[in-house]
Each structure stands twice: as structure tokens, then as C-alpha cells.
Specification:
Shape: globular
CATH superfamily of the largest domain: PPM-type phosphatase domain
CATH class of the largest domain: Alpha Beta
Helix content: 40-55%
Distance between the termini: 67 Å
Number of domains: 2
Order of helices and strands: HHEEHHHEEHHEEHEHHEEEEEEHHHE
CATH topology of the largest domain: Phosphatase 2c, domain 1
Structural class: alpha+beta
Number of helices: 13
Strand content: 15-25%
Largest sheet: 5 strands, antiparallel
Number of strands: 14
Amino acid sequence: MGSSLRQLLDSLNREQRRNQELLASLAFTLRSFTNLSRFLELVPRVTARLVEAEGSLLVVFHPDGRLWRDHLQATPGERSAELLRRLLVLSDNQLQAQSGDEEVAALLDLLIRRQLGSSEVYATSVVARSCQRGRLYVYSDRRGYSWSDVHRRHLQLVADLTGVALENELLQQDMRQDMRRHERLDRQLSIGAEIQAQLLPDHCPVIEGVELAALCRPAYQVGGDYYDFIPVRPDLIGRRREQGKWALVMGDVMGKGVPAGLLMTLLRGMLRAEVLSGLPPDRILHDLNRLAQEDLAHSHRFVTLFYSDYDPISRRLRYANAAHNPPLIWRRQQGRVDRLDAPGLLIGLQSEAEYGKAEVVLEPGDVLLYYTDGVTEASGFSGERFDEERLVRAFDGACRSGLGAQGMLDQLFLRLDRFVGADHHLEDDASMVVLKVREGVMLPFLPSF
């Protein structure tokens, strides 16, 4: 009896510590975030884990009451995806026709409950300045599942933190409109620029059958952008090295300045050591996350990282993603742009995080674009973001132009520069890597036996 009681107490203590760590991580991200989308993406994931629910959904409104479709977020899964699809087609007029916050909440709750059927659903409002700015939902089909007072308190705490994040974003937008930008380089930024420059390859490697082009466009402040090309077999030389497997990586440390640059230097060394193991991408990210956990916890920072390896002989690209912007792929035969993504948490968020793995075979003429959020988050004249939709259109046009990898990269940065404007500067580092499969590439002849 005493042993069972101790086990129960130990289990409760572990759960309490886990919940405290999740809430502390979310709170720290709120204090240090520069990207609202990245913060809001964490909210449903953290919420679902806190209350041990099947899934979670975050619905956000513009200040004028319209649905903020760019910031709808949900935990991975088909049910959540269907919920998002239903919300995306919801008319703004339906919401704005309601007479108050309670009626808006009731309309959304009815839609969500109808979609989820018999699932247990609990919701609370996201409030800022006494105005409803969204609704946070959690749901579960688990038999015997019930909402405890602790669950309700945790859910409300996450909703309150989300309200603060939305209010901060509005304040920052107001400040960006009123403030004049001044370029000041001091000693710290100079050191940081040197660190960051040393992180990035000074040239692209020669890989059989593909063209590569890469560039990091620095902003005023030093950030944590990182891309790399790493041979899985560095002992190979000459033609064998060109035909060997290569790791292609794009990452970003949350935060700016010298600390972010130093931390990425540390991660770069760990990652390069991991690549030598030859493990698949999901295992590479899993092991890297465990190795870096202590250092990231001390620095109170997190890292997004897209890791892929490419085999020039089979043209197979395997990949895993730690919450980084999914690369774009242009399929020459279909003439369309898709996204390469796989499920996975930020590096440093949770010690036992698991990462999904996917793969794709590249065909002659196919093009890949790796990028950091400094590209899609770049502000134009009107304060609008460059966003992924504009990037997709620019990328599709560059791919159809018949240019090589370097020409496409130049065209994409030219499009970004035009959007930002000659008299404006990027707020964050913008990095892009273009990989194009040469159109004359064919698989090697394999004799039959």
C-alpha cells in the first residue's frame, strides 16, 4: 500500500513538473518572441499537453472583429485540419453581424461542436484590453476524460498569455509606424556579425546533378540564421565526394544579437558531429535536441531547424523538421509549388521530443527553396508582411524563367528588396538556399540479373 502511494505521488510530481516546464517555456517565449506566428503555433501544442487532450484549436480575431485567418492554429491531425478548413471559409459578415462577444463565442462554439460531434469540448476566450480577441478550444474522445479545475486554470492561463501576445503585436505595429529607423553599429554587433559570417559556408559545394546557390542577407541586428552543407562522408574526395550523400540544413535561433550567434555556433558543432553518424533525419534531430537541451535551457532560447539529406545517385531527399519554415519544392512536370514538412517541436522545448520523417525523389528540373522567416516576415511600405503566399508566387515565377540556381536566388532577393523598398531595411536576417536538379540528370543504368 505504501509503495503504491509513493508511486502515485511520484507520478503526480512528475506531471506537475512537466506542466510547470511547459508553462514556463510558453511564458519565456512570450517575453522574448519577435514572431507572433511562431508563438501562436506553440499555443495549441502546449495546451493539449497541459490538459492531456487529443487536440487543441486557437481562433484569433483582428481588432475589428474579422477572423485573423493567417493566425489560426491547431495541433497536427486530420480532425484539426478539417476544423481549420471550416473556419477558413467562415464569412466575416457572420461574425461581425453578432451583437457582442458572447454571441460571437456562441456562434464559434456551435460550429466547433458540430464538427467534433460527440467529443468532449471545452473553450475559453482570449481577452486583451477587455475585448475578446479569440477563442481557445481543447477536445478529447478519450473515454472517462473530464475537465478538472486544474485543467480549466491551465487553459485560462494559456489564453491570458495569448491575449498578452496579441496585444504586444498591436503595440509593436503602432511603434513601427511611428518610429524612425536609425542604423547604429557598436562593438557587440560587429563581433556578432563576425560570428555569424563564420557560421555560414563561404561557397556552395559541388554535388553531382544539382546546382546550389545560397545567401544570408543580414539586418541591422545580428540574428541566429544558419544554413549549411555537410558531407555525410567527409573522408571522400573528388568525384566520390560529389556523388556522396550530403546534409542540407536551414535553422534559426529565437532571439537576436551575439547570444543567438554564439548559440548557433554551438549547435553547428553538435550537428556536424551528428551528421557523421549517418542516421536518418528524424534521429539526427532527436539526438541533437537531447544533446542541446541543457545549453538551450540555460540560455532560455529555442531553435527551429529543417534537416535533410540528399543522395545524388538516387536523387532521394529525406527530411525532418523542428518547427522551421517548411521549404518549398517546385515540381517541373506538374508545374506547381508544394511544401516539404514533417511534425516536430522546436529544438530545446522538450527533452524527449519526437520528430517525423518524410522523403521525396527529385526529378530533373525540380527546384527546392530553403528559407528563414526573415524572408516571409519582411515588412513592406504599408506595413504588410512579404508572407509565404508572395514567396510562393515569386518562387514559381523564378522556376518558370529557366534560370539556374544562382539566377533564381538573385531574382527572389530582388523581388524581396522591391517589396521592402530602397529606403527601408530588413528587421531580421533573411536567408535563402536554392537547389535545382539539372534537367539532363538521369538515374544511372542498373544492369538486370
